[in-house]
Amino acid sequence: MSLDNTFVELDKAHHDRATFECGEEELNIFIRTQAAKHMEIGISKTMLLPFSVPLSNGKCSICAFYTIAPSSIRRETLPASLAKKLPLYPVPVFLLAQMGVHTECQGKGFGKVTLIKALEYLWKMNSYMRAFAVIVDCLNTTTEQFYKKYGFEFLCHHNGRTRMFISMRTLEQLFLPKN
Ligand SMILES: CC(C)(COP(=O)(O)OP(=O)(O)OC[C@H]1O[C@@H](n2cnc3c(N)ncnc32)[C@H](O)[C@@H]1OP(=O)(O)O)[C@@H](O)C(=O)NCCC(=O)NCCS
């Protein structure tokens, strides 16, 4: 199967959500039944990497996707060195709400590419609407290791999950063009 190599906004008329399978039922259900609705009601945005050859139904399968939304955190959850410069009210952040790679594509670097694309998108958005960091709520301990590998740090426990963060300042170092 060939790929377009460009992440595009989820479009249920063109992308085959039913065949997405990443090994985590919560994420499968989200992309199949919720992601488009959440975009319609304006609470998150889902971007995906489609296969370029359509299925017999005319739609393209999804190789990988990420979902982002605005959010906020309590200042006290941040390390003291970062918290001390911030005001007392909730700190705006971007939430990397969901991310998954089709099982057929896993282990080939698409997870890394998807994460970098999501962070790059959010870093660009940050030039229009500021946020302090990107946060992610990890599904399990192995995904914690995945995000740690790419610079995320422990923030707090949230609804039974480990919440991790990467600051916009760190992303700036990664994405700001060097002179
Ligand atoms: C986690 C996931 C996105 C990784 O995607 P992938 O395409 O298999 O990952 P990549 O091939 O890009 O791997 C990049 C690196 O991360 C590592 N890695 C991959 N999956 C990992 C995992 N679950 N835990 C820890 N490290 C992982 C790889 O070993 C690789 O390291 P290397 O460059 O040193 O070899 C994918 O397995 C997935 O969709 N899982 C189910 C859904 C999920 O857990 N999503 C995260 C939600 S919080």
Tell me what you see in this structure:
The protein is α+β, with helices and mostly antiparallel strands. It has a single domain, classed as 3-Layer(aba) Sandwich (Aminopeptidase), CATH 3.40.630. Helices cover 30% and strands 30% of the residues. The chain has five helices and eight strands, in the order ββαββαβαβαββα. Strands 1, 2, 3, 4, 5, 6, 7 and 8 form an eight-stranded mixed β-sheet that branches. The longest helix is centred in the first third of the chain and has 16 residues, at 25-40. The radius of gyration is 17 Å and the shape is globular. The N and C termini lie far apart (39 Å). The model has no long low-confidence stretch (mean pLDDT 95). The structure holds coenzyme A.
CATH H level, superfamily name:
Gcn5-related N-acetyltransferase (GNAT)
CATH topology: Aminopeptidase
* Count of extended strands: 8
Task: Report the end-to-end length measured between terminal Cα atoms.
Answer: 39 Å
3D shape: globular
Broad CATH class: Alpha Beta
Main sheet record: 8 strands, mixed
Bound molecules: coenzyme A
Note the run of SSEs as H and E. Answer: EEHEEHEHEHEEH
Low-confidence stretches: none
Estimate what percentage of residues fall within beta strands.
25-35%
State the domain count.
1
The CATH architecture is: 3-Layer(aba) Sandwich
Keywords, separated by commas or semicolons:
single chain; 179 residues; alpha+beta; Aminopeptidase; 8-stranded mixed β-sheet; 5 helices; 30% helix; 30% strand; globular; binds coenzyme A
